[in-house]
Amino acid sequence: MVPDDQRPYAVLDIDATLSDTSRRIHYLERKPKDWDSFFAEAKNDAVLDEGLAVATTLAADHEIVYLTGRPERLRRDTLKWLKDNGFPEGTVYMRRNTDRRAGAQMKLDRLTKLSAERPIAVLVDDDIKVCAVAEKAGYTVMRADWGLDAETQPTLFEAQEKEGRT
């Protein structure tokens, strides 16, 4: 058995990968977008069963890292949501409250920092741009296609990439 401090990282996104954001996406379909309400409702998201299963399976042999585009001001609610819903323990990296970089850039920067510490076995994310950038950089990616779909629900993906909000 590999000691905990030597296990490779498994990096998991949260929104639309572990949590079902479908009940709050309507806040982003308005003009102007209602970001405060969108984020305030995050603590009420249902669990995506596939995401929980993947996280639980990966935790057996990997150090879990949650990498989310959620702003830092949601840390307390996010940690509570993960714990209350039975997700494995792990380090949570969040977007600084003022960070408006595209989700793909923000996450690639964090992956680069993490990979300097130890190997990253897999990134699990729903965002097709994040997945593409990570794969191009040489990371193994599992596309979380069980949540929102970019083709049928482009609002979240637009927010991630064009507005740097989640």
Write the layout of secondary structure elements.
Blueprint (H helix, E strand, L loop, with lengths): L8 E4 L6 E2 L14 H6 L5 E2 L1 H11 L3 E9 L3 H10 L6 E5 L7 H15 L2 E6 L2 H9 L4 E3 L10 H8 L5
Parallel strand pairs: 1-4, 1-6, 4-5, 6-7
Antiparallel strand pairs: 2-3
Helix pairs in contact: 4-5
InterPro entries: HAD-like_sf (IPR036412), HAD_PNKP (IPR056782), HAD_sf (IPR023214)
Protein name: Polynucleotide kinase PNKP phosphatase domain-containing protein
Any idea how many domains?
Answer: 1
- Which sequence of strands runs across the widest sheet? 5-4-1-6-7
User: Biggest sheet: strands, sense, closure?
Assistant: 5 strands, parallel
Count of alpha and pi helical runs: 6
Helix and strand element order: EEHEHEHEHEHEH
Low-confidence stretches: none
CATH class: Alpha Beta
CATH architectural arrangement: 3-Layer(aba) Sandwich
Provide the β-strand percentage band: 15-25%
- The assembly state of the depicted protein chains is single chain
- Any idea what the CATH superfamily is called? HAD superfamily/HAD-like
Helix content: 25-40%
Q: Find the structural class using helix and strand composition.
A: alpha/beta
Q: Work out the radius of gyration.
A: 15 Å
User: How many β strands by DSSP?
Assistant: 7
Cα end-to-end separation: 36 Å
Q: Mean pLDDT across all residues, rounded?
A: 89
Q: How would you describe the shape?
A: globular
